[in-house]
C-alpha cells in the first residue's frame, strides 16, 4: 500500500504498486460533461481575420479609396490608376504577416503525447486532452506535466520548472507539493492528482494576460500617420473648395451639370487631393519592412510584425534571459580541485571517470566524461548508480577502494563542521557560479574484494573523507561574448534577468564580458523596491538580477520605460511572456513555449542569440533609408497642398491631372525611392524622424509650388492660351507637368547625394526615362503628355531653370531662416 513517502519503484512493472483506484469511468464521464477536461483554446498567433482587418482598414486606404471611387464615378478610369496602391500595399502587408503566422503556427505545434492515468484501479494510457480534473496521473521521467497537480506518492521525482520560474536548477518534490503544467520531469516518478486543467491551469492563467494583441510602435508609421491626420484635416475643406473652384472654371454648377463638365472639375480636384497624400511612402514602408522580414527569415529570424525590424534599431536597453540566450542549457566540466596530497591527481581523475561511466549517465556524468579525455573507464568492480533521491553514486575499484560522488552537502551531511576549509572552498566556488560536486572515500578503506559491497551496504558511510571538488557550469553559447560586445559598441545597455541565483548569473555574465572589463553589478530581485519610480533608479546601477519572478520582469520593463528607454526582452519560458508583451520588442527563442512565441514580435527560430546584430542592422537600414526617401514623398505633399491653395485663391483650372502626378511621382519619387531604401546603411538611430523630414521637405516643397504656380499664372499670357479650349488647356497642363517633373528631378538629386556613385547614375536614369516616355506615343497618350515646341518650349525651359535657382536658394537659405525664427521665438 502506498504510504505517501519516497519509495523505490517496483521493478519490472514500469509503475509502482498502489491500491489507489483513481476515478471511476462514470466519474470521468461526468467531469467531461462539466467541461473539466484538459483542453485549452491556445491561440498561437493572430487570426486571418485580424491580419486582414489591420491591413485593410487604415486611414490611408480610406482616403485613397474615397478619391478613387469619386474619379471612377466620373468615368475617367485612367485618372484612377493611383488606387492600385491600395491593393499592392494591403497585399504586401497581408502576405508577409500570413507567412509569419504560418511559420509561427508550425513552430507552436506540440507533440501529441500520451499519459498514464489510474482509473478503476487500472493504469490507462490516454491522450493529453482526455485528462480530467481529479485524475490520478503518473508523471515519469521525460514527461512534460500536462496539467496542474498535487503529488500523492513520489519516487524520486525531480522537475525542470525553468519554463515557469526561470530557475534552471531542477526541483525535488515531496508528497503534498503542487506541480504545474509546463514543467518537465527529469528523473524519478510520481503519482499526482490533477487539480486544474485547460484554461484553469497555472501556465494558462499566466499567459492569458499576455494574449491580447499589441501593435508594435513604429516611428515611421507614427510619422506617416501624423502626416495623414494633418492632411485629412486639410484635405476635406480644400477638396470642397477645389471642386467649387473647378466648377466655376467650366462655367459654374448649372453649366457643369448640364454639359457634363463636372466630371473634369471633379478629376481636377482629386488631382490636388491625391498629390497631398504620400501614398507611395506608405507602400514603400510596407515593402521595405516586408523585404527586411524576408531577408531575416533566411537567417532563421521570424518577424511576426513587419514594424519589428525598425523597433530594434531604436532599442537602447536589452534584457536578456540567461538560460537559452547566453547559455544553451547544457552542462560542461570545468576543473578538478585536489583536496589531499595522499593520492595522485591521475588516480582521482581515473576514479571520477569510473564513477561517472554508468550505463546511462546523467547530464553531469556525460559532461565530465566528455571533459576528461585521458583516463578510460572500466576499472569498477561494483557500482551503485546515481539516484536523484540519494543525490550520490559510488563505485568500488579493483584495489578495493570505494569512491563516492555527489553533492558536497549530501556526502558530508553527517560530518557538519568537520571540514571547514572544504566548506569554505565549496561556498567560494558556488559564489563564482559553478555547480560543485565532490569525490570522497571512506577513511581507512578495507583492501578486500568489494564486488558485493553495495548489496550489503547501500547506505552512505559516516567516515567519508573529501578528496576532490569537481566544478561544472552551464554551457555558454560560443557566440554570446561576441554578440554582447557588439551591443556594447552600439551603445545598447544589456542586462541579464534570471530566476537563478544572482551570484551564479553574475559569474556567467562576467565570463561573457557583459559589461566589458568592469565586473557586472548583481542584485537579488527579492531586494528590489515595489515602487516603479524607485525601481527605475535602482536599475541604472544594476547589470544582473537573479531570483526574478515573472511579475518582476514586467515591472523591470515598465521601470525602464519610465526612464525613457526603448526596451527589448528575450525569453523562452512562460514566465517571460508578460515581460515580452510589455517590452517594445519581445524576442522569443525557437524552442520557447508556444505562449511565449505568440506574444513575441521576433522569433529566433534556431534559438541563436547571434542573429540579433543582423536584426539591428536591418532595422537601421530601414530607418535611415526611409528617413532619406520620406523627404521625397513629403515634398510632394507640401507642394500639392500649396498648389491646391493657390488654385483655390486665384480660381484657375488645376495645372495637372491625377495621371500626371502618377507619372511624375513614379519616376522622381516612388521607383527611385525603392532603390534608395534598399541601399546599405547602418547609421545609428536618432530620435526626431518627422522633424528632420519636415525640415527637408518644406523648402523644397515651397520652391516647387511657387515655380509651378508662377508658370500656371504666366503661361496663358505669355503663350496666348485660352484655357477654355480643351487643346490649349491640355498644352498648358503638359507644360506645368514638365516643369513639375524637372523640380522632382532636382529634389531626387538632393536626396540621392552623394552623386559620385551609383546614386548619380540612378538620377540620370530616371530623368532620361521620363523624357523618353514622353516621346513614346502610347505612353504620352495615356498620361496626356504633349512636349512643347517653339515659344512654349523656351518658356518651359526658362521656368525650369528659374525653379532650379529658386530650389538652391530655398535649400541653402531655409536653415538660416529657421535658426533666426527660433532665436526670435525664444527671445534671444
UniProtKB/TrEMBL annotation:
SUPFAM superfamilies listed in its UniProt record: Calcium ATPase, transduction domain A (SSF81653), Calcium ATPase, transmembrane domain M (SSF81665), HAD-like (SSF56784)
Record's bilayer topology term: Multi-pass membrane protein
Domain of life according to the entry: Bacteria
Keyword tags: Membrane, Translocase, Transmembrane, Transmembrane helix
Principal cellular location given in the protein's record: membrane
Region annotation (Disordered) ranges: 1-24
Compartment(s): Cell membrane
Keyword field contains Nucleus: no
Record-annotated membrane-spanning stretches: 56-74, 80-98, 227-245, 265-291, 629-654, 660-681, 693-712, 732-749, 761-786, 792-814
Domain P-type ATPase A: 114-208
Signal peptide: none
Polar residues bias locations: 1-10
InterPro entries assigned to the protein according to its UniProt record, in alphabetical order: ATPase_P-typ_cyto_dom_N, ATPase_P-typ_P_site, ATPase_P-typ_TM_dom_sf, ATPase_P-typ_transduc_dom_A_sf, ATPase_P-type_domA, HAD-like_sf, HAD_sf, P_typ_ATPase
NCBIfam families reported for this sequence: ATPase_P-type
The name this protein goes by in its record: HAD-IC family P-type ATPase
Organism: Bifidobacterium polysaccharolyticum
Amino acid at each position: 500500500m502506498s504510504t505517501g513517502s519516497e519509495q523505490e519503484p517496483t521493478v519490472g512493472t514500469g509503475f509502482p504498486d498502489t491500491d489507489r483506484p483513481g476515478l471511476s469511468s462514470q466519474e470521468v464521464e461526468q467531469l467531461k460533461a462539466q467541461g473539466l477536461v484538459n483542453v485549452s483554446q491556445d491561440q498561437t498567433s493572430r487570426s486571418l481575420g485580424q491580419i486582414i482587418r489591420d491591413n485593410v482598414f487604415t486611414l490611408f486606404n480610406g482616403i485613397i479609396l474615397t478619391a478613387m471611387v469619386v474619379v471612377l464615378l466620373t468615368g475617367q478610369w485612367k485618372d484612377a490608376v493611383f488606387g492600385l496602391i491600395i491593393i499592392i500595399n494591403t497585399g504586401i502587408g497581408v502576405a508577409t504577416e500570413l507567412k509569419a503566422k504560418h511559420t509561427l503556427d508550425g513552430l507552436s505545434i506540440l507533440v501529441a503525447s500520451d499519459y498514464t492515468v489510474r482509473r478503476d484501479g487500472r493504469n490507462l494510457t490516454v491522450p493529453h486532452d482526455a485528462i480530467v480534473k481529479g485524475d490520478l496521473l503518473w508523471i515519469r521521467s521525460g514527461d512534460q506535466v500536462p496539467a496542474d497537480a498535487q503529488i500523492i506518492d513520489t519516487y524520486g521525482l525531480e522537475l525542470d520548472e525553468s519554463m515557469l520560474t526561470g530557475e534552471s536548477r531542477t526541483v525535488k518534490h515531496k508528497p503534498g507539493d503542487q506541480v504545474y503544467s509546463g514543467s518537465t520531469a527529469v528523473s524519478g516518478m510520481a503519482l499526482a492528482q490533477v487539480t486544474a486543467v485547460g484554461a484553469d491551469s497555472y501556465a494558462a492563467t499566466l499567459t492569458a494576460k499576455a494574449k491580447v494583441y499589441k501593435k508594435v510602435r513604429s516611428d515611421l508609421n507614427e510619422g506617416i500617420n501624423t502626416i495623414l491626420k494633418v492632411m485629412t484635416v486639410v484635405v476635406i475643406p480644400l477638396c470642397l473648395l477645389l471642386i467649387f473652384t473647378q466648377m466655376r472654371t467650366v462655367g459654374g454648377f448649372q453649366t457643369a451639370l448640364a454639359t457634363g463638365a463636372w466630371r473634369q472639375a471633379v478629376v481636377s480636384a482629386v488631382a490636388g487631393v491625391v498629390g497631398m497624400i504620400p501614398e507611395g511612402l506608405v507602400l514603400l514602408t510596407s515593402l521595405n519592412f516586408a523585404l527586411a522580414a524576408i531577408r531575416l527569415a533566411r537567417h532563421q529570424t521570424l518577424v511576426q510584425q513587419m514594424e519589428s525590424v525598425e523597433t530594434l534599431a531604436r532599442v537602447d536597453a536589452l534584457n536578456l534571459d540567461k538560460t537559452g540566450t547566453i547559455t544553451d542549457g547544457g552542462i560542461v566540466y570545468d576543473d578538478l580541485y585536489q583536496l589531499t596530497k595522499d593520492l595522485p591527481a591521475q588516480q582521482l581523475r581515473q576514479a571520477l571517470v569510473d564513477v561517472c561511466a554508468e550505463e546511462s549517465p546523467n547530464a553531469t556524468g556525460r559532461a565530465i566524461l566528455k571533459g576528461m579525455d585521458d583516463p578510460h573507464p572500466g576499472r569498477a568492480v561494483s557500482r551503485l548508480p546515481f539516484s536523484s533521491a540519494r543525490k550520490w553514486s559510488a563505485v568500488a575499484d579493483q584495489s578495493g577502494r570505494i569512491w563516492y560522488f555527489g553533492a558536497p552537502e549530501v556526502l558530508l551531511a553527517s560530518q557538519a563542521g568537520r571540514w571547514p576549509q572544504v566548506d569554505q572552498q565549496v561556498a567560494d566556488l558556488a559564489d563564482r557560479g559553478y555547480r560543485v560536486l565532490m569525490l570522497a572515500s571512506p577513511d581507512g578503506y578495507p583492501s578486500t574484494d568489494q564486488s558485493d559491497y553495495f548489496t550489503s551496504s547501500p547506505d552512505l558511510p559516516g567516515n567519508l573523507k573529501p578528496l576532490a571538488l569537481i566544478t561544472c557550469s552551464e554551457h555558454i553559447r560560443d557566440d554570446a561574448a561576441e554578440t554582447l560586445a557588439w551591443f556594447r559598441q552600439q551603445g545598447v545597455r544589456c542586462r541579464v534577468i534570471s530566476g537563478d541565483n544572482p551570484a551564479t548569473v553574475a559569474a556567467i555574465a562576467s565570463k561573457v564580458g557583459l559589461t566589458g572589463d568592469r565586473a557586472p553589478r548583481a542584485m537579488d530581485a527579492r531586494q528590489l523596491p515595489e515602487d516603479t519610480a524607485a525601481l527605475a533608479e535602482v536599475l541604472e546601477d544594476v547589470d544582473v538580477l537573479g531570483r526574478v519572478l515573472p511579475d518582476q520582469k514586467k515591472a523591470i520593463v515598465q521601470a525602464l520605460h519610465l526612464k525613457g528607454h526603448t526596451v527589448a526582452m528575450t525569453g523562452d519560458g512562460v514566465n517571460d511572456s508578460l515581460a515580452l508583451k510589455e517590452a517594445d520588442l519581445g524576442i522569443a527563442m525557437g524552442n520557447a513555449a508556444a505562449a511565449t512565441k505568440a506574444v513575441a514580435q521576433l522569433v529566433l527560430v534556431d534559438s541563436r542569440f547571434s542573429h540579433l546584430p543582423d536584426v539591428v542592422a536591418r532595422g537601421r537600414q530601414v530607418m535611415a533609408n526611409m528617413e532619406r526617401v520620406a523627404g521625397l514623398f513629403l515634398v510632394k505633399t507640401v507642394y500639392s497642398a500649396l498648389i491646391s491653395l493657390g488654385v483655390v485663391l486665384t480660381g484657375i483650372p488645376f495645372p495637372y491631372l491625377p495621371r500626371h502626378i502618377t507619372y511624375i511621382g513614379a519616376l522622381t519619387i516612388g521607383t527611385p525611392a525603392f532603390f534608395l531604401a534598399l541601399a546599405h546603411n547602418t547609421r545609428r538611430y536618432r530620435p526626431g524622424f518627422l522633424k528632420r523630414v519636415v525640415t527637408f521637405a518644406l523648402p523644397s516643397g515651397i520652391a516647387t509650388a511657387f515655380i509651378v504656380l508662377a508658370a500656371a499664372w504666366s503661361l496663358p499670357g505669355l503663350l496666348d492660351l485660352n484655357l477654355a479650349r480643351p487643346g490649349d488647356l491640355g498644352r498648358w497642363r503638359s507644360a506645368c507637368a514638365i516643369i513639375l517633373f524637372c523640380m522632382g528631378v532636382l529634389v531626387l538629386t538632393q536626396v540621392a547625394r552623394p552623386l559620385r556613385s551609383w546614386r548619380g547614375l540612378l538620377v540620370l536614369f530616371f530623368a532620361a526615362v521620363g523624357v523618353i516616355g514622353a516621346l513614346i506615343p502610347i505612353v504620352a497618350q495615356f498620361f496626356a503628355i504633349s512636349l512643347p515646341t517653339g515659344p512654349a518650349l523656351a518658356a518651359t525651359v526658362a521656368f525650369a531653370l528659374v525653379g532650379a535657382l529658386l530650389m538652391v536658394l530655398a535649400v541653402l537659405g531655409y536653415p538660416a531662416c529657421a535658426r533666426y525664427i527660433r532665436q526670435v521665438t525664444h527671445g534671444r
